[in-house]
Amino acid sequence: xxxxxxxxxxxxxxxxxxxxxxxxxxxxxxxxxxxxxxxxxxxxxxxxxxxxxxxxxxxxxxxxxxxxxxxxxxxxxxxxxxxxxxxxxxxxxxxxxxxxxxxxxxxxxxxxxxxxxxxxxxxxxxxxxxxxxxxxxxxxxxxxxxxxxxxxxxxxxxxxxxx
Length: 163
Hints:
two-stranded antiparallel sheet, 55% helix, alpha+beta, single chain, 4 strands
């Protein structure tokens, strides 16, 4: 019986799973509205640091293993599976270069404000408050958490509130 490590389809599948893991793990750990542990965050950031080189290598290996598997595989269905696994590997590798966090959050460029007398905040609601000269603003965390950045002008001074 042939060893798993000599089977190009097995090696192709291993490349695909590794690429998917490199794509999904940092997204899972760093996703918004979730508290991260120091160790898992450190690992996710390290994965993101080495991910570009790894996914390029894994994608090249996947294409190589797919060509080897194609030569040694008979039947249309099996060959289609080989191509699909190789394609999934390359696509997940390409998606690793997309900054999903920029896609999730869009800066609030022209915020609108209500007078303090007409504003309803819960007692426990947190805000980021900024006061410049006599002008003041309060940015509710529940709003900033969806945008992560609010660009504003207070008393003629550009302000960036971030969470």
